[in-house]
Amino acid sequence: MNKKKQTILSIAGGALVGVLNGMLGAGGGMLVVPMLKKLGLEQTRAHATAVAVIFPLSVLSAAAYLLLGHYELAQAAAYLLPGAAGALAGGLLLPKIPAKWLRKLFACFMVWAGIRLMLNA
Predict the structure, then answer these.
(1) What is the CA radius of gyration of the chain?
(2) Cβ contacts of residue 115 below 8 Å, gap of 6+?
(3) Is the pLDDT of residue 98 over 90?
């Protein structure tokens, strides 16, 4: 892929990921991973980089929602410590999972999320 096409894909993809993340929570990560793979990152690096992309976007989205009064910080507080522990565990496990299984796990998660959303819509 040439540099110009790569830059355009990065800009357009980044904007779309930001919109999805703002509207759907961290759902933008489902777009970031395939986009990063298309740009040449291997599976494990794409997942790790996706987290680095989604984190600041999630902070911005959470701040916007908080300022608009869509939630109270106390509602989220109960999930922060267990979520941080899970994130640390996931970060330590990621390099130990073969890329083939990581791809399959990611695909299963996407299918499960899609079915769940379709049935609960």
Answers:
(1) 16
(2) none
(3) yes
